[in-house]
Amino acid sequence: MTYYIGTNPGDVNSSFIKRYFYGLRRNVDGELFLISADQLSGEDNSITINDLGESEGNFPYFEEGIDYLDGITDEHILVYENLRYPQMKWDGRFLVYYIDDDGQLTVRINKGYNYPPGISAEGY
């Protein structure tokens, strides 16, 4: 039997509020990319927040658990030029985003999705 002083791993897991990170970006060709990372997966979940560039173009306010959705102006100009994901969200739920048959960006909560053949859910 294992004993813990203070909080045990089960308590930490059940009280972990913002477990998943989701980052959304669009490339110069208009393609949409979404990255997701599970902090409890045990895998290397390194995420690049700022791409290389002049320091004044960096996003200086990244904080774990804090959403940021104001990274693009109404004119579709990046607020921080080096910010890789101008929209980022933290959530305690597992979210799966996909494009439905009507071309709409759709989300499933705590439920997987089987992508059609030839469409990759990997990479960013």
The largest sheet is: 3 strands, antiparallel
Strand count: 5
Class per helix and strand makeup: mainly beta
Bulk shape: globular
Q: Please provide the ordered H/E string of secondary-structure elements.
A: HEEEEE
Note poorly predicted spans.
Answer: none
| Strand order within the widest beta sheet | 2-1-3
Mean pLDDT: 82
Enumerate how many helices there are, as a single number. 1
Q: Compute the gyration radius: what is it?
A: 17 Å
Number of domains: 1
| Beta-strand content | 15-25%
Q: What brief labels describe this structure?
A:
single chain; 124 residues; mainly beta; 3-stranded antiparallel sheet; two-stranded antiparallel sheet; 1 helix; 6% helix
Structure explained in plain terms:
With 124 residues, this protein is mainly beta. The protein has one domain (9-109). Helix content is 6%, strand content 23%. The protein has one helix at residues 9-15; strands at residues 20-26, 32-38, 87-91, 95-99, 105-109. The strands form two sheets. It has a three-stranded antiparallel beta sheet, with no helix packed on it. Strand 4 and strand 5 (105-109) form a beta hairpin. The radius of gyration is 17 Å and the shape is globular. The termini are far apart.
What does the secondary structure layout of this molecule look like, with pairings?
Layout: H1 9-15, E1 20-26, E2 32-38, E3 87-91, E4 95-99, E5 105-109
Antiparallel strand pairs: 1-2, 1-3, 4-5
Task: Summarize the entry for a quick read.
With 124 residues, the protein is mostly beta strands. Helices cover 6% and strands 23% of the residues. The protein has one helix at 9-15; strands at 20-26, 32-38, 87-91, 95-99, 105-109.
